Amino acid sequence: MTPGDDTGGGGDGGIGGGAYTSAKTSLLDGHPTPPDASHTKPANATTPLTSDDQDQDLDTTSKAALAATTSTPSSSTSKPSIFRRRPVLGSLLLLILLGLILGLALGLTVGRSNHHPRGNSGSGGGDGAGGKWKRPEKLAASEEWVPSPFGGSDKAWKDAYDKARVLVGKMSLLEKVNVTTGIGWSMGPCVGNTGETGVGVGFPSLCLQDGPLGIRYTNPVTAFPAALTTAATFSKDLILRRAEALGIEARTLGVNALLGPCIGPIGRSPLGGRNWESFGSDPYLQGISGALTVRGIQSKGVMAVAKHFLLNEQERFRRGDEARGEERYKDVKESVSSNAGERAVRELHLWPWMDVVREGVAGVMCAYNMVNNTYACGNSWLLNGVLKDELGFQGFVVSDWLAQRTGVESVLAGMDMTMPGDGLVWSDGRSLLGSELTKAVVNGSVPISRLDDMVLRIVASWYQLGQDSPTFPKKPTFSSWFRDRIGPQYFGTSNDNTMVLSNNFTDPRGEHSKLAREIAAEGIVMLKNTNLTLPLSGGGGGQFRKEPFREIAVFGTDAGHSNFGPNGCADRGCNMGTLAQGWGSGSVEFPYLISPLEAIQARALEDGSTVSFVLEDGATQRVNATADAAGKRGVDGSVCLVFVSSDSGEGYIHSEGHDGDRKDLGLWHSGDEMILAVAERCLNTVVVVHTVGPIIMEKWVDHPNVKAILIAHLPGQESGTSLVDVLYGALSPSGHLPYTIGRSLSDYGPHALISTVPNWEIPQVDFDEGVYIDYRWFDKKNITPRYEFGYGKTYSGFKFSELRIVELVSNAEISEFLPGPKEKLTPPTVIGNSSVETINPKDLEFPKDWKKIDRFVYPYLPATATSTGTTSPRQTGTSSTAPVHPPQRNLTSTPNSSGGYQGGLPSLYDPLLSITVLLTNIGPVKAKMAAQLYISYPNTTIPDVPVRQLRGFEKVELESGESRVVEFVVLRRDLMVWEGGRWGLPRQKGGDGGSGGGYGGRYGVYVGPSSRGFERGDGVSGWTGWVGKEGS
């Protein structure tokens, strides 16, 4: 795609408009994909921007419906034209072509004149772009919620905000703008860098760096197991320790804000490309894991930035510019709109965000997608009303990279920082904040109090994490863009060659490899183990093998190394060799990668076993011959290990027909066929799956020779060592599925399909399933999965008994709706003395004695802009069809009475139940078990509630024969539903454990090893005792 060939759809100018012409050599030269976070432009983007490409509008949404295309002149050809060879036919074709052009122009004109980019009013011009689509009859819409609440309401942040007010009070307008604005892509050492303040203020440029499983774009660092793998451990201890290690490495390298945890997507579709970056398909599991990750990272003085807020559930159409990069999607004008109702938002998608906000997360990253037809980074209901008011979020909201698609509107909607600082296209240096924010404040489009709050939130977060301490690194010790010790200060420009010390080659890892190995091992889920085929060698007691298998045959590319090395594809954007992480901005450079084959060979050397292998998936004859040879050794003599995989990642990389999202739930590289080929010949076939999520295994799961199945997920750098720990019995497997494995994709419901065909110029995805995803959907539809959520076997056995349910409050203390706070919070203030009236416009001009760095984002105004004192924030060339101000801009909203407390009203977190169970290891070996608590609602008047929901998990290690009491504390929120615009206990009908007509009721309680363990007689069940008050 030629940069600038599509200026519509937010004025993106296509992927990578804003040419990257630096002569400097990048680390990623020659890589098949660009060097970016969630945020990539093609490396060959060298065509200069046209003036139309550069049009930006601070007051309105980007030029969505004003799409136009520029063309590149075609090269001449030596063949005579058709007009010379066949003049009559040529003239006819010319007339047809002119008719088509006129028709297209008419269609585009109609679209321009009527389209409203927010989708709330104004039709899309009938058939939309070029007559291709009809505008949906009804579009979801978000209400406007302004003004943006001030930060500083929660007492836990009081000291930080007090210090911030003093420091921000010293800042000039330009310095404040700098704090809120990135300096441009690759213009600083990190993937995100804010501007600086003067020496008199001393607030530093902040380094924001990916990512959720390690520190991106530097080496050496630890490549930890992915969040999905970590969630599969069901271990709060490991989740926290992993986060602490991430915090240590980030701090050591001088990172101020680590872009993680990822708690969105939640896995609405099992095909979602970035599901592996999150903690599974249940809001409770995501929430606990996300909060523990925030706690661990921030305990080391590093800001955690939770992402992606909100409803970011697919890669296809997540960004309009990415979509338009393909000819088939050239008419897509905006990012996909995720349309969901309030109940689905509160009970499912927002649930984990309540936990991370309550934990005190410093940053929240708003997503690329639209929410109910308003961009997430400009959605005031979402950012102001829900996040900052209802949940009492005290930190700052930062855009995903280029996710800001509006100017003033985003600022008023609650976005506090833009990244990487560029405008609507990569590396253009024309920020939607920067100088545009300066203008907007001076002319009154943005109140100075709003700017002060933006800066306060950022600076208070810096103080809250103790980064003013002299022990915190003054700057990053690495460059994301090159590995030389000394390199360019501004890598992304071509008009400055200043060289600085950039890479200190600091090694932050310590002994984190041991932790990575432990997490990866506990994240392995054993689904099947017929005839105790595993472990492969002795040490497990009388019922296990006394001697190891003498011959081991290994099959599949997933068992070995890629010929290009573990980092051979940029951002891990290919599935070659063993799969240990997905692709995209959530990936990290491997310091090393231990493959399964080399770890198995090392262990075989100790045991005296022989190892044969075939690492080519398509080598059918060789696979068959090797499996035949192994099979001849008999059931006691040999074992065949088949390694297969399923990969996915972020939408800016396409791999083997998968456009970020998976196209299906099948194994890659004909994995099903290889498993069957081996199983037909080898009596002991063990399948090891490295995967980003559920796979369909119906073709081979019941094959009599498939004796064991291990889901090893994405194990990170210690892939082989962690697997051998489980294969050979050094550890009993203890992982549990953080999702459901169905028998077909259709089992997951119609919402599981991610359409590759847009249904409008702004693709619309309606979350009609409500709260029913994954196991909730299976339960609602009474679909029997192949393996249910939470499932996982061990080498031992466990018994649940002696269930006890203790009500911590009496009937009289239970209320239908949330009690108000015991103490009202004092409304926060901002600086109080800020004013634009005393600003001399000349002081805002670019200093005459400075050299301007190309593509660096500045807060200064050009001299012509200040000649009359103030100026409109709109740039020349912006279409007059867009409103000067959004029509809702001056609306005011009444702050929610529950606002101000982190996580929402404190009564949400009142403990109501204590549930205990006796867990006993009745097997032969020491092992771990994650006891899981599921709650069922009473027979409620609410017509649609999930059959059961996870509301607790505790992992316990027990010796053979040992017992321990496991306790779960159930909070008020765990029993509530969102109805009528507020949280409430569901009203019950008569019968089924209730006295009729009241609220509260008797809740069903189940504790066991999985969400459906009771079907196998595992676990214990009971009912709560109280029924609540009578309704009125």
Description:
The protein is α/β, with parallel strands linked by helices and 1032 residues long.
For the structure shown, list the relevant keywords:
1032 residues; alpha/beta; 6-stranded mixed beta sheet; 20 helices; 27 strands; globular; disordered N terminus; disordered C terminus
Strand and helix layout:
Elements: H1 82-85, H2 87-114, H3 158-168, H4 173-180, E1 192-193, E2 207-210, H5 227-232, H6 236-252, E3 257-259, H7 283-298, E4 303-309, H8 320-324, E5 337-339, H9 342-349, H10 351-359, E6 363-366, E7 370-371, E8 374-375, H11 380-390, E9 396-399, H12 408-413, H13 435-442, H14 448-464, E10 486-488, E11 499-501, H15 512-522, E12 525-529, E13 551-555, H16 596-607, E14 610-614, H17 620-631, E15 638-646, H18 671-679, E16 685-691, E17 706-711, H19 719-727, E18 764-766, H20 774-780, E19 798-807, E20 911-921, E21 927-936, E22 949-958, E23 963-971, E24 977-979, E25 982-984, E26 1004-1008, E27 1020-1023
Helix pairs in contact: 3-14, 4-14, 6-7, 6-15, 7-10, 15-19, 16-19, 17-18
Q: What is the 3D form?
A: globular
Helices and strands: which structural class?
alpha/beta
Low-confidence blocks of residues: 1-131, 867-891, 991-997, 1028-1032
H/I helix tally: 20
Portion of residues in beta strands equals 5-15%
What is the radius of gyration computed over CA atoms, rounded to a whole number of angstroms? 29 Å
Mean of residue pLDDT values: 84
What is the percent of helical residues? 10-25%
Question: How many β-strand runs?
Answer: 27
Biggest sheet layout: 6 strands, mixed
Instruction: Please give the alpha-carbon distance between the first and last residues.
Output: 64 Å
Read across the widest sheet, the strand sequence of neighbours is 1-2-3-4-6-9
